[in-house]
Design goal:
alpha/beta; Rossmann fold; six-stranded mixed beta sheet; globular
């Protein structure tokens, strides 16, 4: 009997709306920071853009900024949310709560390793890029297998979007980033047993009358 494989899964992946710490270039990591007023507006516009979509499930990071973004979309499509801790942002340990400048001043050597995206470097108490990528891809693969032939929404974070883009385009973990990871942008991917591929990336037409910050501003 021939082997059977999961059907392709369509994924819409979105980064949370803007927070005050995004604006201040303060590292949020796994700290539970809420949306600012603009972030709430972005979530509302995102919900309007996705109101006509059909989802088998809406999965969200259990951090409030992602959950609150997903909640607005869930209300628009009449669906409850499923919390998925595997979609959390990268843990930044002692870097969390600090601005980029504060990190460079307090931990200059570690700051260089972080900026150079050294794969096995982890801030004290945090995750390395290798561990973070493994966590995200395991989570997305698990959810995709569960929803073969369906479409799901993933609400998460800039770092998560970066992992998905790199996986879908076969970018090295240390490659300089040349793609956008804007707040509340719509990113479409296709999962198959062979991996992820890009269908559409960083659609921000629903936010045209408001600027979005890229992930480098978080």
């Amino acid at each position: 009997m021939p082997a059977t494989f999961p059907e392709p899964t369509r994924i819409i992946a979105v980064r949370h709306g803007e927070t005050a710490w995004n604006v201040a270039t303060r590292i949020q990591g796994q700290l539970d920071i809420g949306l600012n007023d603009k972030g709430v507006w972005q979530a509302q516009r995102l919900a309007m853009a996705l109101a006509g979509e059909s989802f088998a499930a809406i999965y969200t990071s259990d951090l409030y900024r992602a959950w609150d973004t997903a909640r607005v979309v869930g209300d628009a499509v009449g669906m409850a949310l499923e919390l998925e801790p595997g979609l959390r942002e990268r843990g930044f340990g002692v870097f969390e709560g600090k601005t980029f400048d504060e990190i460079a001043q307090r931990w200059p050597e570690q700051s260089v390793l972080w900026r150079k995206r050294v794969p096995d470097f982890a801030p004290e108490g945090g995750e390395s890029l290798l561990d973070f990528r493994a966590r995200i891809l395991e989570c997305v693969n698990r959810l995709s297998v569960k929803h073969g032939g369906e479409q799901i929404l993933l609400a998460a974070h800039g770092g998560v979007m970066d992992v998905l883009y790199r996986a879908a385009t076969h970018q090295e973990i240390q490659a300089p980033r040349t793609w956008d990871l804007g707040n509340a942008a719509i990113n479409r991917l296709l999962w198959t047993p062979d991996g992820l591929s890009i269908v559409g990336w960083s659609d921000t037409h629903h936010l045209d009358d408001g600027e979005t910050l890229d992930e480098t501003s978080t």
